[in-house]
Design brief:
Chorismate lyase, 2 domains, two-stranded antiparallel ribbon
Length: 233
């Protein structure tokens, strides 16, 4: 069975992307270049580019050209989503590893983060969230035991801290702070990246109607994740 010419062009461009010849943000050949290279009509070249754009493999920009789309997952800062649901929505497999779960005594900064007295006993958890077996998020979370007394009793391999806290202490407000930085060797090792590789760090403090519930520091490898959103005015 003969493959349609537009499909041949699509296969060629996808192959260039998969082989790393074309990287996210790179401009792909124009309709004129493709029709000459493949000896096809302009309509055929246009169909190949349009279908790849519809499939979100390419991005077409009026007056500038067609570019390889950024394929990294993107999360919105305008909503707080459970990482397991976010990964599942992409049709990918979620898994996690529990690295730490215990009671700790607050440092001065941790007391400020949770709005509790210094040297208070609080709960601490560290989890590594993975997408298709690849580390995507290192979650370092502090939890107010007064508001969530059964936190340490939970099996976070079956439900994420976010999912549990959303049930027992429904969120009424949240703060976000986003930074780009290089992490220490322990976090880099867990995320399976080099120490000099930039990461996104999201600091997230959440409240219920009774006070500050948790403060989480979420680390994402910069080459695997994006943060963004859309606003209407």
């Amino acid at each position: 069975m003969t493959i349609p010419r537009f499909a041949q062009i699509k296969e060629f461009l996808i192959g260039q992307i998969e082989q790393g010849v074309l990287m996210p943000g790179d401009q792909v050949p124009s309709e004129n270049q493709l029709l000459e290279q493949f000896s096809v009509s302009r309509m055929t070249a246009r169909r190949a580019l349009q279908e790849l754009s519809d499939e979100q493999i390419l991005v077409r920009t009026q007056g500038l050209g067609t570019f390889v789309a950024d394929s990294r997952p993107m999360s919105s800062l305008l909503e707080i989503r459970n990482i397991a649901d976010e990964i599942g929505a992409r049709g990918h497999q979620y898994s996690c590893e529990l690295l730490f779960l215990d009671v700790i005594e607050t440092s001065p900064q941790q007391a400020i983060d949770l709005s509790v007295p210094e040297q208070s006993q609080i709960f601490s958890s560290i989890l590594l969230h993975c997408e298709n077996g690849l580390p995507l998020q290192y979650e370092d979370r502090l939890v107010n035991p007064t508001l969530v007394p059964d936190y340490l009793k939970q099996n976070f391999l079956l439900q994420t801290p976010n999912a549990y806290l959303s049930k027992v202490a429904p969120m009424t407000e949240a703060d976000h702070v986003v930074e780009a930085l290089c992490v220490d060797k322990n976090i880099a090792s867990a995320l399976e990246i080099a120490e000099e590789q930039p990461c996104l760090k999201v600091g997230r403090r959440t409240w219920s109607k009774l006070g500050v519930v948790s403060f989480a520091r979420l680390y994402y490898p910069g080459n695997r994740y994006r943060l963004g959103g859309h606003l209407n005015f």
